[in-house]
Write a structure and sequence with these properties.
The complex is a heterodimer of chains A (708) and B (228). With 708 residues, chain A is α/β, with parallel strands linked by helices. Chain A is 28% helix and 16% strand. Chain A contains 22 helices and 26 strands. In chain A, helix 8 (328-340) crosses helix 19 (626-636) and helix 11 (427-433) packs parallel to helix 14. Chain B has 2 domains: 9-81, Arc Repressor Mutant, subunit A (Orthogonal Bundle), CATH 1.10.10; 93-181, Glutaredoxin (3-Layer(aba) Sandwich). Chain B contains 7 helices and 5 strands. Chain B has helices at residues 20-31, 42-53, 58-68, 72-81, 101-105, 108-118, 161-173; strands at 93-98, 132-137, 149-151, 154-157, 180-181. Chain B has a 5-stranded mixed beta sheet. In chain B, a hairpin with a 2-residue loop joins strand 3 (149-151) and strand 4 (154-157). In chain B, helix 2 (42-53) packs antiparallel against helix 3 (58-68). The N and C termini of chain B lie far apart (48 Å). Chains A and B meet through strand 7 and strand 8 of A and helix 4 of B.
């Protein structure tokens, strides 16, 4: 890569020509203040805070907008000298700061950004404290409505336009803009509609001042009061890296953490704002149903009730179902417990997805970062905007950077990039598989084609046939290249887009029906016919819980949702922020979540509940602490020791790929649908959240009503 | 400058469409720009829309955004940025009074007073009969004929208070008004005719000699454009 010599603050450095001067100075160890510049957004160059001195240039230079390749050496051939701390540069920045503060209110004591405000911090460095010469009236700006998540105090806005650029470039929802000009420039949504994006919360992080703040978090806490815990999000299966901020027992807010391979620095609104659901509808003590009513009970009584029922039934009449938010630890514990009781009717696929078998056949094999290398994508029954909003932003990023072609089999949705709509007819997939459809050629001609199968495709009754067709398309169009990931020069574009955070870990652990065992549909059917009379639900709320006949239901989970309403015994578990847990995201990346708070009341960590119960049931689990459990976990499935990395998919053998699904007739009469009916209400935590309910009303219910 | 917002909903018309001539013109204008760059036509289209309707309406913004494949907010940004787009309803005749320094020194206050008295006490407000509205504008570049005002694409110059009042009365009555300097001088020549360069000898050849026809220049050698 071409470099250019610069002298930054007296030190000679080789700077890459593609960098901006600001980045080059930072690499050289200088610290440059900035408001409008952001690595992931286009360069605006309008805040002028990053001014530096280029010795010999007639004016201070905005280093964010100046590329290294545009900096020419001095006349005598010596490298250009850049000063970032000289009195000249300092004075320039002080001047900028003075202008910024002219119209900025002095309301830091009541501002939610206080303590984590770029303007506050930089005013400490560049403000002229004992010095003001602006005696005119200050400007005030009307606050704007931006929806239930973003609170605006627009007088504080310094017009950096980061939010406008984020909305337009990353979120792909050009709702925000800057109207008027000069002093009267205002950031607003079009006619004050809500900012309609699943990523809207990120503008709060981007805003360098307190103009855009989090509405649910308003006036709740100061950043220095919060205990910060690095963790993993479970609202979708992407495994976004988050930081959970707690005060005492309460989760006050959730913020994104940087992970280039997973979520860059964005998280979805559900990951960010469902946290108020963690303190509502909680199960904080065991319950037993007595005479049709749930009565509080002690742990011992609850266990005794379960043991009595288990003793009176037989293993073939027992079943266990794992929910969408479970961590690998409790899945492993439940599997071992059911194994000890010789129960075969176990399943983790509440939605009825036709997935199991070798690991490569149910992963997002290209990886999340791999999306950026793709040049043709076929979506089948997937709505990435709702299934995994941050992944959708990646696809959009890929489309912005390269000529990416995306086609969709399924309902028409606005994915924020152009999509060739192939209709919702599943036979289109067959046509692509046998080469008679035009998009088959696009996939064949593409260098790195990709197919994304969403829940809408794999949960169909003919899901196995759909999988077989998808695998055929993958084979025929060269989606499965030489061994290794795309980083090694290979490619694997066969992708399953899960929506449940627990799913991949559960499939890894083989939480699927044993030989002759029943799947979820079989369990429901059996319960109605009286062939199943004991069902253990580990946080399972997303299937037909209401129709389990007279079966005895044990619900272990954190929230009083659908499962708990129909339970005979309730065991209060921990939510995802209240336990150290291992999660595997849809690309197969093993990640560790940490405990940010303790479970409420008598609730316990889930694997510990199962361990205690196993003792009562006479099938004692062989681990007494989490370390031993993790050891057993790794003993079962070795990749659980590779924390943080997505696997390389070496198994590209024909045998693996020909074994995917079973070819069979397609049900042409059922159109391809999407699994998620309401993005904001997909799990027990989100359904307990008032914020998510408000979002659902604003963005989903109202638009549905408008459509009708 | 003041805050620029769309006019309130109750004065907004229900719809907007270019008339057939303008629609044809708009199509041609959009076609001038390469594929994917249609947004470049936003200012010409808004301007033509304003010429047709007198002001930029809410339906116009959305209609033009759809024609150009732009998000609504992008067109709103343009419409609110440029002060020559009127965001409020205007009368049949929009009187734009220049109040920048040269006009002000030459008495634009009297012109503004006449407008306030005979059109509406507030600028950017349509008179009761709907025929007139007025607004202050920045320098229109006719300082030699200050004070002046613009109606449509015509300038009315060398105004006084009474002359403006007369003009407003004529406009209201539907009588024709004559563009240009109101006091009878030609363009920006001195009042009462030219005072310099008046000698006949400057023009009869007695100083520079008789006109001799110059032979036409030889045809230029074929060169690539831009070559030295």
């Amino acid at each position: 890569m071409a470099t250019r010599k610069l002298i930054v603050d007296g030190r000679e450095v080789d700077a890459e020509e593609t960098l901006t001067l600001l980045q080059a100075c930072e690499q050289a160890g200088a610290e440059i203040p900035r408001f409008c510049f952001h690595e992931r957004l286009s360069v605006a160059g309008n805040c002028r805070m990053c001014l530096v001195e280029w010795v010999g240039a007639p004016k201070p230079q905005a280093s964010c907008a100046l590329q290294v390749k545009d900096i020419f050496p001095n006349k005598d051939g010596t490298p250009a000298r850049i000063n970032t701390t000289s009195p000249y540069a300092r004075k320039a920045r002080e001047g900028v700061m003075e202008f910024l503060l002219i119209n900025h209110p002095l309301d830091c004591p009541i501002c939610d950004q206080g303590g984590e405000c770029d303007l506050q911090d930089q005013a400490m460095g560049y403000g002229r404290a004992a010095f003001h010469r602006f005696n005119e009236n200050k400007r005030a700006v009307e606050d704007k409505y931006m929806g239930p998540l973003v609170k605006t105090i627009m007088t504080r806005c310094i017009q950096c336009t980061r939010c406008v650029r984020f909305a337009t470039e990353v979120a792909g929802v050009p709702d925000l803009g800057a109207t008027g000009r000069g002093e009267d420039m205002e950031i607003t949504t079009y006619l004050e509609k809500a900012f309609e994006s699943e990523l809207s919360g990120n503008v709060v992080d981007l805003c360098p001042v307190g103009a855009l703040t989090s509405k649910p978090y308003a006036f709740n806490a100061r950043p220095w009061e919060l205990r910060k815990t690095e963790s993993i999000d479970v609202m979708d299966a992407q495994g976004c890296n988050i930081r959970v901020d707690t005060r005492g027992p309460q989760v006050m807010r959730v913020l994104p953490r940087l992970n280039e391979d997973v979520n860059e620095e964005w998280i979805s609104d559900k990951a960010r704002h469902a946290c108020d659901g963690l303190s509502r509808q909680r199960l904080d003590r065991p319950y037993i149903r007595v005479g049709g009513k749930l009565k509080p009970a002690s742990w011992a009584e609850a266990f005794a009730a379960i043991a009595a029922k288990v003793k009176s039934t037989t293993p073939d009449k027992m079943a266990a179902i794992v929910g969408d938010l479970a961590a690998a630890e409790e899945i492993k514990a439940l599997k071992d417990l059911m194994g000890g009781l010789r129960v075969k009717n176990i399943d983790c696929r509440q939605d009825g997805a036709k997935l199991s078998g070798k690991r490569q056949t149910y992963l997002f094999n290209s990886g999340i970062a791999g999306v950026e290398a793709a040049d043709a994508i076929l979506l089948v029954g997937a709505n990435p905007r709702w299934d995994a909003p941050v992944l959708n932003a990646r696809i959009r990023k890929a489309w912005l950077a390269s000529p990416l072609k995306v086609a969709n089999i399924g309902p028409v949705v606005d994915l924020t990039y152009p999509v060739e709509q192939l209709g919702a007819d599943i036979t289109t997939l067959e046509a692509i598989a046998n080469g008679s459809h035009a998009f088959a050629k696009t996939l064949k001609d593409a260098k790195r084609p990709m197919i994304i199968l969403g829940s809408g495709a794999i949960t169909r009754a003919d899901g196995a046939a759909v999988m077989a067709l998808a695998a055929k398309i993958a084979r025929d169009s060269g989606m499965i290249g030489p061994a290794g990931s795309h980083a090694d020069g290979g490619w694997n574009g066969f992708n399953i887009l899960h929506t449940a955070a627990s799913r991949v870990a559960a499939l890894d652990l083989g939480f699927v029906p044993g030989q002759g065992g029943r799947d979820v549909a079989g369990i429901v059917d059996g319960a109605q016919k009286g062939e199943i009379d004991f069902i253990y639900l580990l946080g399972a709320d997303e299937f037909d819980v209401a129709h389990l006949g007279r079966a005895f239901i044990v619900y272990q989970g954190s929230h009083g949702d659908a499962g708990a309403h129909h339970a005979d015994v309730i065991l209060p578990g921990a939510a995802y922020t209240e336990k150290a847990g291992t999660y595997v995201n849809f690309e197969g990346r093993v990640q560790q979540a940490s405990r940010a708070a303790f479970p409420p009341g008598e609730a316990k960590e889930d694997w510990a509940i199962l361990r205690a119960l196993s003792d009562v049931l006479g099938a004692r689990l062989p681990y007494d602490d989490r370390a031993a459990l993790l050891k057993a976990l790794v003993g079962d499935v070795t990749h659980f020791s590779d924390v943080g990395t997505a696997p390389l998919h070496a198994d590209t053998s024909a045998a693996t790929w020909e074994s995917i699904g079973t070819s069979g007739p397609l049900d042409a009469r059922t159109p391809v649908g999407h699994a998620i009916a309401d993005y904001y209400l997909t799990n027990a935590v989100a359904r307990a959240s008032e914020t998510m309910a408000a979002c659902s009303r604003e963005f989903v219910t109202s638009s549905k009503m408008a459509a009708e | 400058m003041s805050l620029r917002r769309l006019a309130p909903p109750d004065v907004q018309p229900a719809s907007f469409a270019f008339n057939s001539d303008n629609a044809k013109w708009a199509e041609a204008t959009i076609a001038k720009y390469p594929a994917g760059r249609q947004a470049s036509a936003v200012i010409p289209l808004l301007w033509r829309g304003q010429e047709q309707e007198g002001w930029v309406t809410h339906p116009m913004i959305e209609s033009i955004a759809r024609m150009l494949g732009m998000p609504f907010i992008r067109v709103l940004e343009v419409a609110t940025f440029y002060t020559m787009f009127n965001l409020e309803p205007v009368g049949d005749h929009l009187v734009q009074v220049c109040t920048t320094t040269p006009c002000w020194l030459r008495g634009s206050d009297a012109v503004v007073e006449a407008c306030k008295k005979h059109i509406h006490p507030h600028q950017k407000t349509v008179s009761a009969d709907g025929k007139l509205s007025w607004m202050e504008v920045e320098c229109l570049g006719a300082c030699a004929n200050a004070p002046m005002l613009q109606i449509g694409s015509d300038y009315y110059e060398d105004l006084t208070g009474p002359a403006t009042e007369q003009m407003i009365a004529d406009l209201r009555a539907g009588k024709p008004v004559k563009p240009g300097p109101i006091n009878g001088r030609r363009s920006s020549e001195p009042e009462g005719g030219a005072l310099t360069l008046t000698e006949k000898s400057l023009y009869d050849g007695s100083i520079v000699g008789k006109h001799k026809p110059v032979p036409p220049p030889p045809p230029p050698e074929s060169k690539k454009p831009g070559a030295a």
